[in-house]
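ARCHIVE CARD
Drawer: 12
Card no.: 0347
Subject: one protein chain, sequence and derived structure
Cross-reference: see card 0346
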Amino acid sequence: MKINTKLLLYILSTSIIIFIAVVGYITIKSQKIALTEAQNVAQTTAKEYANIIKSELSADFKAVKTLAQAGQAYHTLPWDEWNNVFLEQQRNVILENPHFLAVATSWELQYINPEWDKPFGRYLNGWVREQDGSIQQLEAELNTDGDVFTSNYYKMKSSGQPMIVDPEIYNYSDNAEDQYLNSNISVPIKLGSSFIGLAGVDVDLQRFQKIIEEIKPFENSYAFLLSNNCTFVAHPDKTLMGQLMVENNKDFFKTYNIAQKVAEGEFFSFTHKNKQKEKHYYAFAPIKIQSIETPWSLVIVVPNKVITSKANKILINALIVSFIGFIVLTLVVWYIAQNITNPIVKITETLKNLALGKIDKSLIIEAKTKDEVGEMTLALNTSIKGLNKKAAFASEIGAGNIDTQLELLSKEDKLGQSLIEMRESLKKARAEEEKRKEEDQKRRWANEGLAKFADILRQNNDDLSVLSMNIIKNLVRYLNVNQGGLFMLNDNEESGKTLELLAAFAFDREKYFTRQVELGEGLVGTCALEKQTIHLTEIPQNYVNIVSGLGGSNPNSLLLVPLKIENDILGVIEMASFKKFEKHEIEFAESVAESIASTLKSVQINIKTSELLEKSQQQAEEMAAQEEEMRQNMEELQATQEEASRRENDLNTMINAIDHFMLKAELNPEGKFISVNDLFLSTFGYTKNEITNQSIEKLIPDQELSRFQKIWERIVKGKSHNEIFKQKSKKNETLWLITSYTPIYDEDGSLLKILYLAINNTKSRKEKEELKRKVALYEKNK
């Protein structure tokens, strides 16, 4: 056998074996690498979208938490006033969040109703969104017969922890297309360690369906969202929404202990072979919301055949190329055997290193010929250089340098194009994350500011000057502006309605000067008249001058916010700054203005009520003196009546005199009139025939009848009785009489009759009732 033949045989046989080994190794390795990379992509995608859904739910949770924290201040106002203010806050929340289906708070009755002494029972008040998008008030008293121990409300009442209720299907009508999935997010309202109620919202979960449908990291892959009890919240197959995952495949559900791992918020993954012998890779990413102990989970499912399909195509192509190469090699190897022996060895070694994943400059081969072997060497060297650049590019991306550049080998460089697309995706994700952080920072700034001013408004609310200065001083500092002033509407009968500057603050100093503005006068008067916020960035010259230690200058931006409750204007806040007011700062100032207006209104009412109380107390003292004088007169009159009962002759003379001054009547022990004088008849509007033999109860109002019957029982037992008593005339008019009832006995000591004497005190009594009404009004406002 010739050496060329042997060489041909050895080269062909060796080449075939090496080629098959390399192709097989690369194919198997590529399948494993493809599977591992796909699993990593699936896990990364699951975590990424889990964070997106988490941010959505966290925003809802923060809104509810803020509402619950605001509810802790319920005791600072009378309940009826607080309930109206807080109901309006809930209305604003549901209007600003279109995906909220309901916003409501539940209050334990024992904390808001002084007459309720039971540890159960709650008051529900809030808003619910109807099918047409309108909102309706929701109000009810619940659990007045006892707590429902299986309810979500009782679970939170017992644990004191916030929670996300597992979703359920709700339907406005009986039509299947009208049904939707919703969940409830609730946060307890606590005063110290005491549970006083909760704030909660019903959230429309339909928005997560679009996010889930967009998740397709691979062809034929899909994702779905599970709640804490493994209910389908979102799924490409919408018929599964609202169903429990265990109902879909019990064996699969139990085999991988899915319920426990999801409930514990665990990240886990596995590969499952279904009944059709198809393998699918499952990745579960937890969604944990701050202190809520009921995490959800986002799941991505990837078919293994999709992952390995590319590797299989590579194998088929490799086999085809191998067959063609074998034929070509057989025809030309005898001619070029000597020329290709050494280069092929080097190329084989290089391919082995590439198969092992080794990529560096040492793999580059020196091309000594310009034939096909030389071209193959140059092509291999080009591939190695391209792989080195891509490896360096990937390392830079991994180190966070997403602005690094990559030069493509050609328009067909798929790997390079994929790496560039990955870089652009990372840039976009970073930009979105920075934007979300900025929005979160603005929202947190506004919430902290509202909480701060809620605390400020609870302090010094009995002194309007101190409170006004605290408000404008803290507002100037919190908004980081240069100066500000608070104008209060003053309704004076002589000068009319004017806006008076109560407090001014600039450059960390209080300013003391007097300024009054008519309604409609200047920017302040215009703001009050139109009841709208005014924001100017082009300030009229000499309108306001900001003075500091470095000199004075006109501001660049001016903000005027009206202080109003519903449509009633109370004043205006004016702030000037060298910097431009941002949109979120203006919205914050308007929100704070609502709370400031409510507090200032309460302070005004308290001041007016205090003045009224002082005046009422003075009148009460005068009335008390008059009543004491009248009581002494009645005591003297009673002594005279007792003396008259012993001296009948003197009594008759005295009675004739009394007939001209006092109402007089005689009644038998049964309470029926025996005789009456003319003054009695004219006062009550009866004739003598109409009143004779009629019961005295005819003159007693229904609401006083029961008490009078008890008094009459004591009188017929021999006890005299004096009292200012309410009675009614024939025309049903209310009369206030100073009455005296004296029993008259015969010589045997038996009760003969009862003498009735009275003085008409109706006019004085009305004055006293007006005084009591004013005092009661003061106590209520206080």
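Annotation on reverse: The two ends are 121 Å apart (CA to CA). DSSP finds 19 helices and 26 strands in the chain.
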